[in-house]
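[Meeting: bench + compute handoff]

Bench side (C.D.) handed over the final construct sequence. Compute side (W.E.) agreed to return the predicted structure before the next meeting so the bench team could plan truncations. Sequence as handed over:
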Amino acid sequence: MGGKRQYCGQLGTIANCQAGGFLAYTSPHGTTLLDRRLYLPQEWVDDPAFAARREQCHVPAEVTFQTKNELALAMLRDVLASQTLHARWFLADEAFGRDTALLDAVAALGLWYLVEVLMNTPVWLEGARQATTAQAQVMALPATAWTRQLIGDGTKGPRIAEAHVQRVRIQRAGQADPAGWLILRVDPERGEQKAFLSNAPEPITPTRLITVTGLRWPIEGCFEVGKQDLGMGDYEVRSWTGWHHHLTLVILAHFFLVRLQRGLKKKSPPACPAGARLTVI
């Protein structure tokens, strides 16, 4: 059900597979998954030739085609509407970071987004008459503009990056609007470059922004545990209900492990910026 040749996160390449979207939550108390949605390619939803397959897989008649970004926004709205969790930040990779409509919708929900973007993403410097790019800024900034910052704890010790933060105007429809932040990171060992945009308010400190860029890393740990220990990708279900049941049990099992680990922990959780984060994968 929903299978086609598309990017497979478990394999890290294009393969014939199913694809799902996930919403995760991280705070000083732990990190876990909150929700899951199966992505159905458009032909699976709209093509009459797939009608028999949809019926065999028990896909609800009311299901309509939604992009992965639309599924992410739907999950986010559902969690916020439940009022069971509080969050300040929304984090996502560049597949979501380049969707300006999604970012504006996230901002309208009262969240601060901090999303990874492509290095060729246009931004407008204060007072500039034309746009530049994150890549151009990396090349143009002097060495004195960069500071070495801790961005979090990794499996092999502290994660360090050379970073730079500056106020910019974020491009919308070719124009400089709205105001936001450009956060640039360079791995001092591998030279890997990353760029992030955020709509956080101006009083926020650069150090906090840089730290928040590293908070998607714990989410990757959720998926590592889910795939290696909880059977996230080990299923042969072919129905709509079966897929959602399987992933729901994986989410519940992971949450149980997080609670158990926290109960057995002898030391306090590592310090991180105030405010929990919702992350979409």
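W.E. noted at the follow-up: The longest strand covers residues 157-172. C.D. will use this when planning the next construct.
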